[in-house]
Structure formats: structure tokens, C-alpha cells
Amino acid sequence: MNQQIPDPKIREQSVARWREVNQQIDLLTLQLDELIAIVETGLREQRLARLQAKSKSSTAETIKG
Fold this sequence. Notes:
mainly alpha, 1 helix, rod-shaped, 0% strand
């Protein structure tokens, strides 16, 4: 097997690019985590409001009944 060892300068540039790409992926992952947290909070708030509305309407019906 004939593997060529890349020029040290080219290798250094490649490593630097990979580090930059990894950092960008980490940043994107954190941004997606933040977006997921925001959506989950919104869904939780909607569910809570829906349950509270149901609870109020069933309480009102119980009082009328």
C-alpha cells in the first residue's frame, strides 16, 4: 500500500478547517437545542392553557348543575 503523507502545511490547513467546521456544527447544535426548548415551552404553555380552560368550564357546569 502506497499512502502519501500530505505536506505538513496542507495537513495543518486541513486540520484548521476541520476544527472550524466542528465549531460551526457545535454552534448549530446549540442553536437547534435552543429552538427545541422554545418550541417545547410553547407547547407546554398551550397545554396548560387548554387544561385550565377545560377545568374552568367543568367547574362552571358543576356549579350550574
